[in-house]
Amino acid sequence: MPELPEVEVTRRQLAPMLVGRKVARVFTTRPSYFFLTPPATLRRRLTGRVVERLERLGKYLLADLDSGERLLLHLGMTGEIVREGAVDHDRHVHLRLEFDDGRPGVVFRDERKFGKVQLLAAGEDSKRVLRLGPDALSADAEHLHAATRGRRIPIKTLLLDQAVLAGVGNIYADEALFLARVRPTRRAAGLTRAETPAIAAAVRQVLRRAIEAGGSSISDFVQPEGGEGGYQHERHVYAREGEPCGRCGTAIRRTVLGQRSSHYCPSCQR
Ligand SMILES: [Zn+2]
User: Fold this and answer.
1) Which of 2, 4, 37, 268 measures 20 to 30 Å from 230, CA to CA?
2) Domain boundary residue, one of 71, 98, 130
3) Active site residue: 49, 59, 109, 156, which one?
4) Last residue in a domain, options 113, 130, 147
5) Distant-in-sequence contacts of 84-89, Cβ < 8 A, 24+ apart
């Protein structure tokens, strides 16, 4: 499932494929839960528009149009937004944009269709975006510490709450807690004044490194230009159950928290 680094890598490669180009034609599949805005409306409103800017907040992409409208995009579980021709053009392509310059278009492909597309009117806010906490790339120690107070839930579960930090998912929560030497099962409220800044710093560090590596292609992630990420080769604990910890050699353990797998080193993480 794409998390902040995969969405940021998508934004960086996608921006030059979108910004400044005029949409000549829009193709969609039939109405479904993928389309928060009816596909017929998308086809009508997007045609003739120019994307002026592509931004990211948490796991959401927001494309500003020259009409003042904004296109909200979320990759869901298996979404990939790529240059036309970079992936198979099949029934899983739900949105395709062609431009008036004749160069390759852009396709949004999603096998499981948990991705989302929504067109926001000028000045309209998305409820989904308004609910988000600060972007995890700038995770702040004071903010995280305050968010843990009075919370009886495990720190891993708190990190996955998009209202606390936007953009962290299962892979990078496990990786950050390893770097911070804190067990995912620890009760958030019990974390010390020394531990919460270490976790915030680890979140920033692991997300930055994953962006540099091009994201993680553990399951499906494909970059807009068709390449794969490289962070999966650097991960410390995620999906490494039974393998030795790179720091101390102890076998990595897996436990289930809130129906999500969590991975940690029982020696290094307390
Ligand atoms: Zn260890």
Assistant:
1) 268
2) 130
3) 59
4) 130
5) 86/222, 86/224, 86/225, 86/226, 87/222, 87/226
Q: Would residue 269 count as lying in a domain?
A: no
Distance CA 185, CA 270 (A): 9
59 CA from centroid of ligand 1 (Å): 30
Amino acid at 90: D
Residues 54 and 116 in one domain: yes
Average pLDDT over the chain, rounded to an integer: 96
Count how many residues are written for the chain.
Answer: 270
Residues 12, 15: Cα–Cα separation, whole Å: 6
The helix (run of H) or strand (run of E) holding residue 41 is: helix 39-46
> Does 3 participate in catalysis according to the annotation?
yes
123 token code pair: 């000045």
Q: Please, what sign has the CA dihedral across residues 49, 50, 53, 59?
A: positive
Query: Among this protein's residues, is 260 annotated catalytic?
Result: yes
CA trace torsion 14, 85, 231, 34 (10° rounding): 70
